[in-house]
Amino acid sequence: MFCPHCGAGVREGAKFCPACGQAIAAANAAQPGRAQQPAAAQSNQPSYDATVIGQRGAAPAPGVQMPQATPSARQFSPSAGAAPSQPMAAPGVNGTPSGATPINVQPITADPLVKEMVSPRNIQAIFASAGFGLLAAIVFSIFPAIAFTQMTSASEESGMSLFNGLSSSYNPFGEFVGVDGPNFFHYLLLNVAFGISGSVAPQAAEAGSTSAEAAVSIPLGLTGIALIIGAAFGAYLLARKGAIRFKWAGIISSALSGVVAAAVFTLIAAIFRAPLGVGDELRGYFSAGTFRTFLMMFLLTFLGAGFGYMLAQYAPDSTNVFTAAWRWHHRTRGFVRSFIEVVNLQIALITIMGIVILLIATFKTNTGQLILFFPIMALMLGTWLFVISTFGAITLSIPSQLPINVSLFGKKLPIDAIMKPWIVWVLFLVILVLLFYVALRASARNLYDPAFKGWGHSWKMPVAVMVFWLIAGILFCTVTLSYSDDSSKGAVTIGPALWYFLVMGIWAYLVEAVANSFGPSVIMSMQGVWKLFAGGTVQPTPQEVVDYVAGCNGRWFKKYPSSGVPSASALAAAQAAKEQAAKVRAAAQAQAAAAQAQFAANGPQSAAVPPIPGAAPAAQPAYGQQPQYGAAPAAPAPAAPQYGAQPGYGAPAAPAAPASQQPQQYGQQGGPSLPLPPRQ
Description:
eight-stranded antiparallel sheet
């Protein structure tokens, strides 16, 4: 109950206002409708239901419903002068409301970004991303764990014998050779750490032990790739249904997913250390709970979850992350598309090479368990062979010694026992042919999309490839064995030479050179095999997806827009919602300032801001009335907008009729004059 004169909260049935002293009963009798304002304000508030309504399917497919915004994270406050969304609490002592919110303390859901972050759907997406990523990594680690268990149980020595080949000066694991104790669960945790390029360190059983401090890490394996894909799958699955914006809610949520996955696994690995002993004597432990393991788990989960959140905004017309990635890949333009195709080709070749090497080694050594190590060794062996085949070098660095480089023109290849050196030259020719095919696909893309054709754009993709290989070569492609004791300290590393990223830049520039020189002529002269290169062209983006991205205030890559132009209605609605949101924030700040002044003047009883007398509460739609993705856009209204109508904070309204699915002709002014073959 509120005072009709000053708006202060009063007890039910009170005859006089404790703030202004005016009579209340007479005023209420004269204005009976005013006493019903709190109830009316409460009845107009939306219901907050966490149930998901609507599913988003492929845009071109008929009969597939699109998701709608989650109102728990998308309701905005009414404009200034409207009644508060929450009713006044019961009064306390001396007429002061016991549940009043203190001044200068803002509810956590008052910030639009925070409301989106703490929405039930986004919380589920964070934990689902971490959970699916960990589950995928654990499943892939089962295979090498089985191999370790079989090999160590059938030998007098444990898996530590793998390090017997090192000299005593650089073998920090010498004290732990010939020990027993780890079981299948311990090997499972150790192989997860190895597969994500984390580190595993021996630990002494007693504090006074003289064992060396050491750690070993190997390059990223298929276990890490599975972790990335699993995290992307979980993030896309729920972020798409909740219409979570990629910037900044998706980026922050991805970081939180990485923290959750890294903290859970590192804690489990630190608790369940692998015991190492000889007979009944405990010699030490083997632990995967290291800082590098935490860092790599966080980084890979962050990358995977971020990719899932990104696809949920830029490819929302799919039902899973795999089809979304395929569609987004074929809708991108310019150097981004070329970079994706080159890197995908390299990763595929590396994986195939690594598995082939493991198969050859398995048959030559008659050791069937070797093939089970593919989750942690396939990418490592394939990467080293790929580096050598593309005129790179593998460098072995040992403290106090000159580095040893292994290449086609240097030392004898270490794979002579597995395959002949001429096979490496055959691989070089295969890589050359496949990159030429990628260049022809880029040429076909330039014919239909000449806006990004020309030598002025030819440097962008090679620079992106060089950055990729510089980071990957340092973080994910090197075996590192670090040690420290009373007499020596250092690290032994085996991996691609640091300058190899420059070699990859040259290979990438050759692709751009072919695409910008004679590639289009080759395409026009080979129209009989056009279907082999049609996949390199840019597929048109459905208009509703373009409008959705525009409503989320998302840009594909700033200067590199999507394959379509947002409709005028979508841009107008997004701009109107943005301006209205700014007005609402300004009104809320003014109302907070007025409440602060009233609090300073009247005391604690004015802490809860009552509604302004005579102002009708702003009606907000119920949960089931949220605009659906793909529905006709609502015209901007002067009333306070929904929170989901703000650009970037939910599913915006989009036109119902999608754009024509015919191939778009980009840049007709500068396009080719010859008749082009159809892309379909």
